[in-house]
Amino acid sequence: MDFRVGLVAVEVALSLLALLFILLGAWQRPNTSPTGAWAVAVLALIALGGFSLSSSGIDGVARSFYGLVVSDRLGAFLGLFSLISGLLVLFMSPAYLSREGIHKAEYYGLVFLSLVGGFFMFKAASLLTLFLGLEVLSMPLYVLCGLKRNFGKSPEAGLKYFYLGAFFSAVMLYGISFLYGALGTVNLEGLAALAISSNRHGLMCAFGLALLLCGLAFKAGLAPFHAWVPDVYEGAPTTITAFMATFVKVAAFGALIRILFSLPPDILPVLKPFGWLVAVLTMFAGNLGALYQTNIKRLLAFSSIAHAGYLLVGLLSFNALGQQGVLYYLLAYTFMNVGAFAVVIAFGQRGEENVTLDDLRGMGLRHPFLGVAMALFILSMIGIPPTAGFVGKYYLFAAALSAGMPVLAVIGVLNSVISLGYYLRVLVALFMMPEARAVIIPPKGFGAKVAVAACAVLVLWFGCFVSSPIAAFQGAFSQSMLQPGTIARLP
Amino acid sequence: MYTVVPLLILFVLSSVTAIVFVLANRLLGPQAMTPSKLEPFECGVEVYGPVRQPLHVRFYLVALLFVLFDVESVFFFPWAVILKDLGLVAGVEMLAFLLFLVGALAYAWKKGALEWD
Amino acid sequence: MQAVFFWLFSALAVGCALGVVFKKNPVVSAVFLMGSMLALACLFLLLDAHFIAVIQVLVYAGAVMVLFSFIIMILNLPQEELPPLALGGTRAWGVAFGAVALLFLAGKFFPTKEGFMPTSRGFGDVRSIAVPLFREYALAFELTSLVLLVGIVGAVLLAKRKV
Hints:
Chain B is mostly helical and 117 residues long. Chain B is 65% helix and 0% strand. Chain B starts with a helix and ends in a 7-residue tail after the last helix. The model of chain B has no long low-confidence stretch (mean pLDDT 84). Chain C has helices at 2-22, 26-46, 50-75, 90-109, 126-134, 138-159. The termini of chain C are far apart.
């Protein structure tokens, strides 16, 4: 065992990049944008993404830092998704920030630090790494949510997210302390010794595990811990909303995968009913809540809750289909969600105006490129072929069927039907209603358009060419874990 | 365990002393609470309002920076103890740790967070 | 002897924690919180975790309490504004659920006859914390610097008047 810093090269590079941008924020001239540094950051993220992609082809599991961090294909794929999300957000940011008057290079630094935290969450081989990763992920986001200090809802969002996030971090840490007390270790391999039906230790294990999972469910926005999502997503700067909706979900689900697949197999029958209930609650909470929304950011927030529910369905099936489906859906979800928020930014005006459904009326015809792209993202969220969302959903629900959970699959499909109720309202507003505003201000932001175009192309691409990513994702699990409990037998 | 016994004795003794003095004052001393006796005596100024005035938010910034750098300095104790044994490794670790915190200090300094206005 | 001290400091910690919750004056609550922290430090001492006990006093009872009292002074809630602690609706459910959970857990955890386990020589001193901290858990140590960095940057960004 050794440090083997080379295995966390991406994280180190991101941390140094973050420090650079934070210092740049102190030394930049007021009201200027760090264009040169921005370009460097874009290139760096592309390079790191390429590095992650290349390392995702390597079989095998490697440990670094005395076994605190695991590097395998799953981690490489999730890292790639995170970097893609970060890169898209990076493209959307300059135009948005200059429109909102946030001339702060620290913004980028905090985004990179958050990415570092996410990496350590889904590469965690120890509950300690997982917790610290969660903190490094969350704390920059609390700041970023409240960054627009003069816009009424942004400080509220930051404060709300901070209080609830801190509370759930404490809950999670409490759970970890119980697990440590019962097992004598915080390594994920140690979880394989978890036995909840044995003796006094069993209760400590169950209690600790429940609290730990509650903390992660909060981050993932699963019901009944989802109430913060709409308020925070609405108040946060829209670029950060897109970042949270995609990257944080990737990190939280990555951590959930690490934990669930470290548990001994005999715990699953106990755990599954709870997971089942949470998935159903989450889907209904998201979709029924979204029906009442008129603000597009809140609507997308509720829809992200629903998507977390679909993802949980795939995770609960514990089979190869579900594992591929979760990864595929996370990727598809990143593209369609970031794309949708980029369109919202392009239609918006300074101070988050024009983000209600009424404001969108007729804009699809006035700005066909943005309108068609938004329609594509919405169709993908509904799950209509040939979009990436359809493929992902297909795999998730097929996994539930093959795992012998037909009721869950049926509920999932039913929820997709419910979701039509609000997704179609967006499409109707965009294309079938007369324009509401007398004065049309043309949407601005070249970077946002690049992000929209990239997302639209990729949503279609991953909707049409399915086989090679699916094959790759199958490999993601085959080495490290195919069945729960197998991680314990690894070297 | 028994290394802390002197500490406990000190704790108990100081508590008892404090309690005894306060109680003795209350029980033995004469109590004539006339308004003029409740006035500030010999030191202090005349009362002219509630003492808890709102503080400026910059106090908070100073306090928070203090806590964060306090936590940082806590890590130096174990590091200093172990430095000889681990040698270069511990040195490099602390340098990496300090890189980010010196960066943070430089940031706070340049932003004027260490100045009062 | 140890059991006596354990119960003494445990009762002190729990009592002070209750004081934090039930006192209406936030300054009094803060002082109770400090009492609770100190009692916890004493419990750490009983467990032979000397270094942790010192850190508990230095960081929590010292630095964090400074921050708390500053925030109380900044917010400066007049005492009248605090609503009375009414036991109705959600709160009643919360208390009931918490009480049941507490009794359940207490019943399961408490009947222990093991007592204090003997510790190895040097347990809990600075060196025994330092070796794992800078070897097996070096990553956690480095990640802490990132957390502190975010804390400082966030404090400056959000609390500084003119950024």
